[in-house]
Design goal:
Elements: H1 22-28, E1 41-42, E2 46-51, H2 63-72, H3 76-80, H4 90-97, H5 101-107, E3 112-114, H6 120-128, H7 135-142, H8 150-154, H9 166-170, H10 182-193, E4 198-200, H11 205-211, H12 215-235, E5 243-245, E6 265-270, H13 274-278, H14 285-309, H15 312-319
Parallel strand pairs: 3-4
Antiparallel strand pairs: 1-2, 2-6, 5-6
Helix pairs in contact: 2-14, 4-7, 10-12
Length: 320
């Protein structure tokens, strides 16, 4: 979730205070989990960790370097000497191309995907040089992955950042793409993710809601996210996967200005050993470390073998 931090209890500033968030409240066992001063929280199913997005660098954290830190496990802002964004400059791109979670899974023979789809106009703008890839799609393509398209969205292989696909109808001209309810969108994220060793879903409109619009609109946006998460939580199999929800920097939690914040961001873990894994997270670079621990436990290799054994033709091709 781009641009979501932990803030204060001031209802005139922080939309979390007045938002109705029953799914997150139930998951985390309290109604004020979104406050920065609360510290770590754990329930039977989940752990929340206030996570440092500043990484020892002055200034306001930015998307390009924050996302790069999440996906590489390296302190990218410190390595390049600044927080930078929204799109990667040459220095950030170099860090991403040096290796990310996407490339590590692919190199290990696993299956990885960015679940966010892009319309044809996006690809045309990239090809013409009018637009740059942001950190997450750059990491995916640098690993040799093909970005999801409208066809993937149409056929249920991707989930739109707006969740329901209404924006594809209203603004992009894809009237044939089926509409989803918010709950269905959350369920679909869980279903698609189950087919990969590592997958990433990017919800960037939360950052836009921090930069623009009213406090009331931000409240409505958070309530929309909570409904999606309700569907995701209900469909997620805790025994088979680790679900991580985090952000690259704060923003929406402080509507008294339109800038990013230096607040901690919430990292939520759902799955086996969530409390133990959560104890290892302090800043954004630690997220990749616990994902690597999960992958190196043998899950990638075991799942890869199981998939091949269930498809003798594919096994023969690999043997050949």
């Amino acid at each position: 979730m781009d641009g979501v931090g932990l803030g204060t209890a001031d209802p005139t500033i922080n939309p979390f205070v007045t938002a109705n968030l029953p799914n997150l409240d139930a998951l985390l066992g309290c109604e004020d989990w979104y406050l920065a001063h609360n510290g770590r929280l754990s329930t039977a199913r989940a752990t929340l960790i206030p996570t440092d997005a500043n990484l020892g660098v002055n200034g306001r954290p930015q998307s390009a370097t924050g996302q790069a830190a999440i996906l590489t496990g390296r302190n990218v802002p410190k390595l390049i000497g600044e927080h930078y964004g929204p799109k990667p400059n040459a220095a950030v791109a170099e860090q991403i191309k040096a290796g990310t979670l996407f490339s590590e899974v692919v190199e290990a023979g696993g299956q990885a995907a960015l679940l966010t789809p892009y319309p044809q106009g996006y690809f045309d703008a990239i090809d013409s040089g009018r637009r740059l890839l942001s950190s997450v799609p750059l990491a995916a393509t640098s690993a040799g992955l093909v970005l999801m398209t409208a066809d993937d969205l149409r056929n249920g292989r991707a989930v739109s950042p707006d969740f329901t696909n209404q924006g594809w109808h209203d603004h992009l001209g894809y009237a044939d793409i089926p509409l989803l309810s918010l709950v269905e969108a959350g369920q679909r994220i869980a279903k698609i993710a189950a087919g990969y060793d590592f997958s990433f879903f990017e919800h960037w409109p939360s950052d836009r809601s921090g930069h623009r619009g009213s406090l009331a609109a931000a409240v409505a946006h958070l309530e929309m996210i909570d409904t999606v998460l309700g569907g995701l939580f209900a469909a997620w199999d805790d025994e088979k996967g680790l679900l991580i929800i985090t952000s690259d920097h704060g923003n929406i939690e402080a509507k008294d200005h339109r800038k990013h914040t230096r607040n901690p961001v919430p990292t939520i873990l759902i799955g086996k050993n969530h409390q133990e894994l959560g104890s290892e997270i302090n800043d954004l670079t630690d997220i990749a470390k616990i994902i690597r621990k999960q992958l190196q436990s043998g899950k990638v290799a075991k799942d890869r073998v199981a998939r091949l054994q269930s498809n003798p033709a594919a096994m023969q091709l690999c043997n050949d």
